Amino acid sequence: MNKFFRSLFGFSLESRHEIEIMYFGRVSDFLMMTSERVGISMEKYTLEQMLNRLRKRGDRWAYELDNSYVICLINGKNALLSDNLKAGDEVGIYSRESMFEM
User: Fold this and answer.
1) What's the predicted TM-score (pTM) here?
2) If we measure between CA atoms, which residue out of 45, 96, 101, 99 comes closest to residue 74?
3) Phi, psi for 77 (deg, rounded to 5)
């Protein structure tokens, strides 16, 4: 959900210490998800830590979210694994591979 609309309805990811993860293309199809909200700690939390947390969900997640397959954006800008996440951030996850290569 767009940050503007969320602010209109009183939703605040920042107050809940959450980030929004949006899955696109092959990643979305393979994981059967389009988006989710994930709570993060108030301490330093990196994109790599977030991806590792998601990979622990199982084989399908570990395979699809492998570092060599994904491209990540934080608030619409290209991101590095070492980039820090903060409450309220929107993370987009795309695949480098086509969904026809499944």
Assistant:
1) 0.79
2) 45
3) -120, 145
In this structure, the number of other CB atoms found within 10 A of the CB of residue 18 comes to 18
Secondary structure letter of residue 82 according to DSSP: T
**Structural domain includes residue 7:** no
- Dist. CA 5–CA 69, nearest whole Å: 31
Cα 46 to Cα 84: distance, rounded to the nearest angstrom: 4
Query: Domain with 19 in it: what CATH number?
Result: 3.10.20.30
- Residue 6: inside a domain, yes or no? no
Residue 73 · residue 79 · CB < 8 Å: yes
Indicate the DSSP class of residue 99.
Answer: G
- In the block, which residue shows the tokens 């060599």? 68
Q: Helix, strand or coil for residue 44?
A: coil
- For residue 27, what are the domain limits? 12-97
Per-residue pLDDT tens over the stretch 39-68: 987 788 999 999 999 999 999 999 999 888
